[in-house]
Amino acid sequence: PPAAHTNSSMTLRSSTAAKGGPQPNKLQSSTSSSCDPALRPIIRRRARSLPTSPERRKRAAVQCQVPGCQSRVNRVRFADALGLELTEVKVFQTGEDPSIPLHVLSRLSINSDLWYSSSDLEFTMQCLVPDFQQPADCMDFSSRLQEQQVCLERVTSSDLGLSGTIQVRNVAFEKQVSVRYTFNQWKSLHEVCAHWHRSIPEKNGQDQVDVFTFFLPVPPFLLQLCSVVQFAARYQVNGQEYWDNNRGNNYSLTCRTHPLKMPRECEESWIHFI
């Protein structure tokens, strides 16, 4: 009968809905009935270097399509990924103590004196002091340069040695500038090459001038009181040789004591690198 047929059809639909339709969320129902939040991992501890992601490997495998271009892939691997230790401990024996330079030891001694001092500390340091006026500060510097073709401009001293600048007239492009110096009144001598630093354009009708820099290494054991360093500048160009020897007297620097006064508040500003 039609009524029976309708009932069977309704039964089929309800059965289908029960099998394929949306099922009730058991987790939500159980969660809603409980006050405890759902647990999920929030920390993942890394035991070793993670492998390269597939996307990164894919990008690394793509070769450059430009002709003549050689694609280079840089890869970084950590030591622990190769089964090695990430740290290395070095134990020094008593006979393997590092060698500390003398100028560092002197500064450490100054810092020690500052620590135990209750007032400003005044101490003396040994350094090379020029026995001449800086040529660049002289009124006749330009005339000396025009006359000699080469002239020392300025020299300064430090813990490691002497550094300075030399001016030469730009007679030709190919030129060589050097400094000849001695520690023992010319019983033995040394010579170092100066390096081009910059050019000074023409000014007041004078030719272009090139500036060279030089450095004279002075060992710390030679920095004794009254020790003297002498030097002269040499300029070679177009097969000619020109000298600047301070008008025959040579440039000399004498090791002297220089007084320094350090305030107490500067104690914390000393930083030493060994």
Automatic annotation (TrEMBL):
Residues 142-254 form the CBM21 domain. Residues 1-41 are annotated as: Disordered. Pfam families: CBM_21 (PF03370). One of its GO terms (biological process) is regulation of glycogen biosynthetic process. PROSITE patterns: CBM21. InterPro entries: CBM21_dom, CBM21_dom_sf, PP1_regulatory_subunit_3. It comes from the Eukaryota. Gene3D superfamilies: Carbohydrate binding type-21 domain. Signal peptide: none annotated. GO terms for cellular component: protein phosphatase type 1 complex. One of its GO terms (molecular function) is protein phosphatase 1 binding. Residues 1-17, 25-35 have a biased composition (Polar residues). This is PPR3D phosphatase. The gene is Ppp1r3d.
